[in-house]
Write the structure tokens for this entry.
Amino acid sequence: MPGGNSGANDGITFDIAAQIGAFVRANGAPSHPLHGFRIKHVIESGFSQDGGFTFTQADFFHALARLPGGGAVYDGYVPMGTNGPSNINFGLTPAGALPAGDPRRQMQPRDAPVIHVDTETEIALGLLNPIGLAFRRPDSDAPNDRYRLWEVPGAAHVSNDAAEAVSTIQRDVAQILKVGLADLPPNGCAHQQFAPGPVTGVPGVVAPSDYPFSFVQNAAFERLIEWIEHDRPPPHAPGIQVDLTTTPRSIVRDALGNAVGGVRTPFVDVPITTFVPTDTVAHTTAFSGFCILDGYTVPFDAARLQALYRNHGDYVSRVAAQSIGLVRDGFWLVPDAISVIEKAARAPVP
């Protein structure tokens, strides 16, 4: 639409998503771009805003948009980084959001499995809204309601995953602004240096989150395929613990400041840093409104590390033991566990 998007027709997003899935399946004709490939499964997934769309697709439109003959367009869904369904029109037109008590705020029964994976940020932000955690519901193995919810403490909505130099969102911003990474304007977040270029912290004091949320994502896709092909249920994980009696409501934290509950990993159970899932604004900029999504870490000093671990070998062995357990339990894949153990071997633990 010239001059911008009013949102008036954004509801067709879900029709388009269904049509794309159906198109991928219909690869028999020689003119089809996927002709010759065997299509085993068609899965929809998304993170953040796209995670809300994926949730909505599974929750509402999976039952409405079907293949000729009535079959499902998508075999499964992995919504991520979302507090439940998006508005049908992205909230830009008067239709608004679902009422507080609408059952569709939680994933409704459907004939395709769903593994919903969230970072700690979604839980922190959900606590700020009276119905922000309304998407939470019990897991299910029922044939018409296969569902898992995995919440990952330590993970932030925006992070430099596995210590990459530049986060995906910053690369996207650079492309939108048509500038080089070095010329990116500063975000203005309180725990970032106010300087152009990729986000940086203060060495030894604070750093952008490098929690590898992608490791749990990778396992979610693997487990979803097993659920589809072999009806092998994925593992269960408790939710991140919250305290609804405080003002404001809060995440329960351990003595080292990391969240309790959720999918436990060495990053929070054998920690060398405190993970904070949101940031505040120090300088108002065009991008500072996103600071609430930016995670950061506060590394432990040498005294705390020495109090936690007998020596470097003690630290590495504890990381290795939990990493192996995560593979065994189905929350990580072998290559990711190996990378974590190798990183622990290089960690600055005395």
Notes: The radius of gyration is 21 Å. The chain has a mean pLDDT of 93. Strands lie at 43-47, 76-80, 114-119, 147-152, 207-208, 242-243, 250-251, 273-276, 296-299. The chain is about 30% helix and 10% strand.
